Amino acid sequence: MHRFQGIYAPIATPFTKGEIDWDALKHNINFYNQSKLAGLVVLGSNGEFAMLTYDEKVELVSYVRKYLRSDKKIIAGSGCESTRETIQLSNSCADVGADAALVVTPWYYKDSYKDDVLKAHYTAIADACVIPVMLYNMPRNAGVNMSASLVCDLAKHCNIAGVKDSSGDIVQITNIINGTPADFSVFAGSASFLYATLALGGVGGTLAVANLLPDLCVELMQAVQDGKHARAVEIQAELMAVNAAVTSRFGIPGLKKAMDLIGLKGGQPRMPLQPLDEAKTSELKKILAGVGLL
After folding, report:
1. Which of these, 10, 190, 237, 239, has the minimum number of CB atoms within 10 Å of its CB?
2. Catalytic residue status for 164
3. Quick one: which of 217, 172, 171, 227 has its CA closest to 190?
4. Rounded Cα distance, 190 and 210, in Å
5. Taking Cα atoms as reference points, which of 244, 152, 235 lies closest to residue 196?
6. List 57, 164, 257, 265, catalytic entry
């Protein structure tokens, strides 16, 4: 039995004048409460976790838990540069209602972060963490890749429940699925390879585009589970342009602007990130119209 499965939206953190806009966040949570999402990732890459203070991070998890439906889980992004602070933040998030800790690789001393160092880091975290740990491989942002052999090795730890792999390397993801225990949760870290991950045996996804189209992402997963692969492939094709727009193409400013455009509250990014400019906003509108969001 997988402890974690299904589609999760890594939610944005709305800011107004640089401060967290709690009312805007509550508005978004009400929308996700009506969706078929399994839960939310708070403090993910899309939540600008790197821009938040320690106290803001804990307060965000606490606030989301207060307003999110009780049957939906919270996975909290608690990866910090040091092992010590990661353990502290993971357990602080657990104290306010997080169901799992999503731990991205450290990145600053990336030349030193070989498999043996990362294994020691994650093992120490899993040993000390009071909630299950999910590994988070995000080489595009962190510049560090967790190899399939490292993930398979760490999957033997009783408190390491799964991995969110955002590498887009489907060979690596296949090797992880094939080399980990049956109850280890392998999540696609982007909708661009959601179908491939699920068809190969993955059990979920944490997807930026699920902020905008939660139920369509869930429908893709359901189609795979029901053996309706033609329908799943159709949905995968439909998601590609809008997913690219709110990830690699326009980044966080694109996701936040898209949310604003469809009636959610994206708000401003926190500096140094800048809001999307007019030319890109006009391109984004065309893409959103193409999937019926505008």
Report:
1. 237
2. yes
3. 217
4. 10
5. 235
6. 164
Contacts 24+ apart (CB under 8 A), 270-276: 270/13, 270/15, 270/18, 270/48, 270/51, 270/52, 271/18, 273/48, 273/51, 276/250
Successive 10-residue mean pLDDT values, the chain, 294 residues: 93 97 98 98 98 98 98 98 98 98 98 98 98 97 96 98 97 98 97 98 98 98 98 97 95 98 97 97 96 92
Of 179, 196, 215, which is closest to residue 187 (Cα–Cα)? 196
Give the Cα separation of 130 and 102 in Å (integer).
13
Model's pTM, two decimal places? 0.97
* Residue bearing tokens 């962190």: 142
* Distance, CA of 135 to CA of 98 (rounded, Å): 15
Q: How far is C-alpha 241 from the geometric centre of its chain's CA atoms?
A: 19
d(CA 210, CA 217): 6
